[in-house]
Amino acid sequence: MVETTIRDEVLQVRIPNARWLVTGWSGGYHDSDVAYNVSVPEGWDRTDLGAYSRERREAAGFETDGPSLLTGVELRHAAGARLDGVTAIATVGLSNPASLPLDPDGTAPEGLVTAGDADIGTVNLLVGTSRSLEDGALATLLAGVVEAKTATLQQLSGFTGTTSDAVAVATDRTGEPATFTGSATAVGDAARSAVRAAVKASFESRFAESEPPESVASADTGIRSSRQAALFEP
Fold it and tell me: Residue 67 in contact with residue 36, Cβ under 8 Å?
């Protein structure tokens, strides 16, 4: 059972007996009952991300340690969706969008950001399944979640994501085992559907009274991957 709690702009997602696979600064595999999504204030410039996340978590009254994601999006825009034992929670911001034109023109990147840059929107996802997965299946699930996020955002905004997106996926190690989690499996399809719904709902909440950027050039910052790569025959 996935439980969510928000206090003081900190979102805790609790899944008993969970194993997480996380991208971003706290990336890797984690055995923890909880994971967090922490909304940072405008003008935030901390670079000691672990200490900062712990301070925010403890100030909000969350004592259990776990991996943390960071976002500039206020948590009133968080949205969740459930389907067949999969739960997805999304926060969607696009102040630093990323685009990938199919026919690159060979120009230099328009802008790059690094961890700690202020006013970053970020698309963050926390996704859990009630099924028990081995590490390889959990990695496959993460790939499917990222694909679903990208496809949904591409249709909503024309962007593939942002320069600082992060994803955390979790398995309940006491659940019924599932060997495969690709898009044609029950787990994979449920995850893709839940992510699509959560991302769409968070996007619509975030941009209910404003418009997303029309391009990378019109955004605060971001990246348009327009350089030409050299082809070769393997």
Answer: yes
Rounded Cα distance between 84 and 43, Å, is 40
C-beta separation of 127 from 81 below 8 A: no
CA angle (196 as vertex; 86, 74 as ends), nearest 5:
95
The pLDDT > 70 percentage for the chain reads 94
Give the Å distances, CA to CA, from 114 to 38, 162, 222. Answer: 18, 12, 10
Residue 9, CA distances (Å) to 51, 119, 196 in order: 17, 15, 23
Token pair in block for residue 230: 């050299």
pLDDT, residue 116, reads 45
Model confidence, pTM: 0.94
CB of 39 within 8 A of CB of 128?
no
Q: Are 172 and 32 in contact (CB under 8 A)?
A: no
The dihedral region occupied by 186, where left means phi > 0, alpha psi between -120 and 50, and beta the remainder, is alpha
Q: What is d(CA 87, CA 224) in angstroms, rounded to the nearest whole number?
A: 31
Checking if the pLDDT of 119 tops 60, the result is no
pLDDT of residue 120: 62
Question: Any idea how long the chain is?
Answer: 234
Q: What whole-number distance in Å separates Cα of residue 225 and Cα of residue 50? A: 30
For the chain, the straight-line distance linking the first and the last C-alpha, in angstroms and rounded, comes to: 46
